[in-house]
């Protein structure tokens, strides 16, 4: 009994530390402690999806495309395993969708379009399992935005392959963004995308307001700083 209690406590402490490191943007340290546990043979689904998330963080903050692809592929495999072992964990579905979307940088148009439906359904499942997670709503908004940016040629290809290509609207995109913002109003990426939606719908004053608000939030990681620079540049064009 004591042995299993120690094992459970050890995993509980590890998860607590990993979540704190992720929250404070200490991505490399988080990746290292989770990888060490995985390499030691631990396969708890709560560890698996967190290690998948850690791989994503390493991927998007990497300047080398090959490193990005390596972490994306590994992360996707980990969250896929976590999802199979613990299907009622919303985070597994959310990070599966995120990493599958990230994989789009390294695959062809046909596979990317096919994955779009899986990505959308993964995010919807995450919201169904936990309606209080702001990132899941943002992910749905980002999915809508991506669909809205599909060019005519890609849309025609999607129609030929799948019959009905993925579809969305700027109104749907904004609805998800506002749901995310209501739960967490400190995310640069939410402000940035809200600015983009307003700009695309020719509400330039509103777009500028969101872009400028994004520049005033705290930016710690290289990715956050890049988002802030992008928002500042776009605000000048409004």
Query: Averaging pLDDT over every residue, what do you get?
Result: 91
**Low-confidence runs:** 1-6
Q: Please state the structural category.
A: mainly alpha
Q: Report Rg.
A: 19 Å
**Termini Cα gap:** 64 Å
Report the total helices. 12
Largest sheet entry:
none
The fraction of residues in strands falls at: under 5%
Total strands: the figure is 0
Principal-axis shape equals globular
Helix content: over 70%
Listing every helix as H and every strand as E from the N terminus to the C terminus, the arrangement reads: HHHHHHHHHHHH
Key traits:
238 residues, mainly alpha
Would you mind describing this structure in some detail?
The protein is mostly helical and 238 residues long. 78% of the residues lie in helices and 0% in strands. It contains twelve helices and no strands. Helix 5 runs antiparallel to helix 6 and helix 11 packs antiparallel against helix 12. It is globular, with a radius of gyration of 19 Å. The N and C termini lie far apart (64 Å).
SSE order and pairing:
Blueprint: H1 2-23, H2 27-39, H3 45-60, H4 65-85, H5 90-102, H6 109-129, H7 134-148, H8 152-162, H9 170-183, H10 188-200, H11 204-215, H12 222-236
Helix pairs in contact: 1-2, 1-3, 2-3, 3-4, 3-5, 4-5, 5-6, 6-7, 6-8, 7-9, 9-10, 10-11, 10-12, 11-12
């Amino acid at each position: 009994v004591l042995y299993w209690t120690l094992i459970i406590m050890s995993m509980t402490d590890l998860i607590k530390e990993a979540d704190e490191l992720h929250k404070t943007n200490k991505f490399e340290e988080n990746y290292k402690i989770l990888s060490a546990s995985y390499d030691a043979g631990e396969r708890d689904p709560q560890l698996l999806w967190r290690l998948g998330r850690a791989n994503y963080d390493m991927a998007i903050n990497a300047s080398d495309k090959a490193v990005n692809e390596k972490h994306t592929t590994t992360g996707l495999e980990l969250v896929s395993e976590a999802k199979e072992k613990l299907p009622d964990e919303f985070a597994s579905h959310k990070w599966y969708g995120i990493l599958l979307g990230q994989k789009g940088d390294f695959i062809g148009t046909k596979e990317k379009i096919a994955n779009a439906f899986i990505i959308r359904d993964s995010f919807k499942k995450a919201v169904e399992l936990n309606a209080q997670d702001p990132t899941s709503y943002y992910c749905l908004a980002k999915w809508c935005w991506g669909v809205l940016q599909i060019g005519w040629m890609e849309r025609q290809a999607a129609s030929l392959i799948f019959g009905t290509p993925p579809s969305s609207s700027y109104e749907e995109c904004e609805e998800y963004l506002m749901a995310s913002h209501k739960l967490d109003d400190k995310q640069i990426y939410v402000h940035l995308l809200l600015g983009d939606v307003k700009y695309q719908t020719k509400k330039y004053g509103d777009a500028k307001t969101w872009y400028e608000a994004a520049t005033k939030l705290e930016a710690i990681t290289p990715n956050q700083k890049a988002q802030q620079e992008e928002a500042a540049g776009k605000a000048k064009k409004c």
